[in-house]
Amino acid sequence: MVGSLGNLYDSIENLSNTYMQPNQSKDAVLNPRIANFGAHVPLLLPNEDGSVDRKFYRCASYSSGHVTITDDPNALCPHCHQRMNTVMTFVAGNGAAKVAGEGGGFVKGVVTYMVMDDLVVKPMSTISSITMLNQFNVKEVGVLEEKVVSLEMKEGLMLLKASLQCKNVLTSVFLS
Predict the structure, then answer these.
(1) Tell me, what DSSP letter sits at residue 90?
(2) Where are the domains of the chain?
(3) What CA–CA distance (Å, rounded) separates 155 from 20?
(4) Model confidence over 59-110: pLDDT tens digits?
(5) pLDDT tens digits for range 128-149
(6) How are the residues of the chain apportioned to helix, strand and coil, as percentages rounded to the nearest 5?
(7) C-alpha of 67 from chain center
(8) What distance in Å separates the CA atoms of residue 92 and residue 57, rounded to the nearest whole number?
(9) Contact, 77 vs 60, CB < 8 A?
(10) pTM over 0.90
(11) InterPro entries from the xrefs (predicted)?
């Protein structure tokens, strides 16, 4: 795979199941499935302010037992052939069920992870930190510096683009 996105996929695939939340599977991240509601459900990407302003519609005979939705208010219902122009309310979810005390998500919240420049992700420990310092031939820890970065929509899109194009993703986005 071109770029570094494959490293991110491999990191999840190689992550031990002991780091996963109870009742969560790596397969849900590696091979996501869209629930089949009998209709095509489009992927909704948020606007720059984080909102999703897409509208969905259904036919007036919703009570017929058929659940068919569309994003086109001029579409005709395949069951009753009426115009599907009744607006539905869209409620965005958080994408993962909350697990008591764990904060939700796929991995356990008590673990710190290390993300390398090429998007290799590993659980962080004292040993893995020392190994990384040796790997990069760091002799004096005083020469290291911390960089706090902002991660908003713009940076997220830049990370996605860089992950498809290069091997030094974090450097190219946050130090360029």
Answers:
(1) P
(2) 5-17+110-174, 25-95
(3) 27
(4) 877 555 667 888 888 888 888 888 888 888 766 555 444 444 445 678 887 8
(5) 889 999 999 999 989 988 888 8
(6) 30, 10, 60
(7) 28
(8) 16
(9) no
(10) no
(11) DUF674 (IPR007750)
